[in-house]
Design brief:
Length: 396
């Protein structure tokens, strides 16, 4: 345990000192974390031996995603949805559904042995993009502001949008396998969605009222107030899960409401949420490299690799090009937006979520998800800075 802790702390210290130099070149954070886990883990050097079972991995990934969902939703400026020729709205309302549909159709072609509902689950868990993997693009001032804001809003909201869709398909899966009435599947879906939404709204409203009262009484401490929103995110998630609802819906809905209620203080209060999520994300990526990739490597067939490539290209890029038809963006900019739809933490968590459901092709679906994330981390990590530099030269 202490050896694992020492290695993790040493790497975290190293990366914190040299992150600026590393990320301005060909590498990004998640790629570095994954490679460190892979190289130091049991598959290669064997000096890093994380002892974490399926439940521990799920808890780690779920808590990380819950905080990120809350923070992204709270940070989102919904007024931007219609800005820049409606770029974020087009990506979310046209591009995202088309991505799911195309992922399902190509899955039917490549994997006819996988049941249709399970293919829909696979297409959904591969649809959301990861803001952390796209940070080199979204935080780079060389990228046009409209593109940065569009991709940032898209990645901040699409994982939350995908949660109810995934829950719906999981409910249909249960109905299909138990031969229960379709209404029962609908009830399961509405129950998870409804409880999650009500919990997120209620707890956020209560927290805001308490925040206002404490502010008027001058009872707040600048140090402790930083934990307000991280604590609220975890409270929404855990309470909804306890009551039988979706903790992810609760975190996402709570974050959206917090964006409105805490409007004046939200950026100051959200700094701690983002800082809290960072070490959890680092641990998740290191464990992903050390344990998850070696476990599924032997199951990665040529068809799975081919689908992963298509998922990052045709399945993502073509819907984006369709969604941006009629806008003033030139063709290369549209390709740029389509390419930088990296898959990451949300896909990993969704893949872990479905382990508890009786999927006939669960192992294959999980392998496809891992393969796609692996390719995304490498390809998007290596291509971000070169393409950004090319755009910057073209704009001069």
């Amino acid at each position: 345990m202490y050896q694992n802790l020492a290695l993790f702390a040493a790497f975290l210290l190293f990366y914190s000192l040299f992150a600026g130099g590393i990320e301005t070149r060909l590498l990004n954070g998640p790629l570095m974390f994954m490679l460190v886990g892979l190289i130091l883990g049991p598959a290669f050097l064997g000096v890093l031996q994380p002892r974490i079972d399926k439940d521990g991995l799920r808890m780690l990934a779920e808590l990380t995603l819950a905080i990120i969902l809350f923070s992204d939703a709270a940070n989102a400026d919904l007024k931007i949805l219609k800005a820049h020729e409606g770029l974020p709205l087009r990506l979310l309302m046209i591009g995202l559904p088309l991505t799911m549909l195309s992922g399902w159709l190509i899955g039917r072609w490549l994997f006819p042995q996988i049941p249709p509902v399970e293919l829909a689950i696979m297409a959904t868990l591969l649809a959301p993009t990861d803001a952390a993997l796209g940070k080199a693009v979204m935080s780079n001032p060389k990228v046009p502001g409209a593109v940065r804001e569009g991709l940032n809003v898209e990645s901040g909201l699409n994982d939350g949008i995908c949660v109810p869709v995934l829950l719906m398909f999981l409910a249909l899966l249960i109905e299909e396998q138990t031969r229960s009435p379709l209404s029962l599947a609908g009830e399961l879906f509405i129950e998870e969605l409804g409880i999650g939404a009500v919990v997120g709204l209620a707890l956020t409203l209560i927290a805001w009222l308490m925040f206002r009262y404490a502010s008027k009484q001058s009872w707040q401490s600048p140090i402790w107030s930083q934990l307000t929103l991280p604590g609220l995110a975890l409270l929404c998630f855990a309470t909804a899960q306890t009551l039988g609802g979706s903790g992810f819906i609760a975190a996402f809905v709570g974050g959206l409401l917090a964006s409105s209620l805490f409007s004046e203080q939200k950026h100051r209060l959200l700094e701690a949420s983002e800082e809290f999520a960072t070490p959890l994300s680092v641990i998740t990526w290191i464990v992903f490299g050390a344990l998850v990739i070696p476990r599924v490597w032997g199951n990665l067939t040529p068809a799975i690799w081919f689908y992963a490539v298509l998922s990052l290209t045709v399945i993502r890029v073509l819907p984006v090009l369709i969604s941006l038809a009629g806008t003033a963006f030139d063709y290369e900019t549209r390709l740029f937006i389509g390419w930088f739809g990296p898959r990451g933490l949300a896909t990993i968590v969704f893949a872990i979520m479905i382990l508890d459901y009786p999927l006939e092709a669960g192992r294959m679906v999980g392998a496809i998800a891992v393969c796609t994330v692996l390719l995304s981390v490498v390809l998007h990590g290596l291509s971000a800075n070169p393409w950004v530099s090319r755009l910057a030269r073209r704009e001069r």
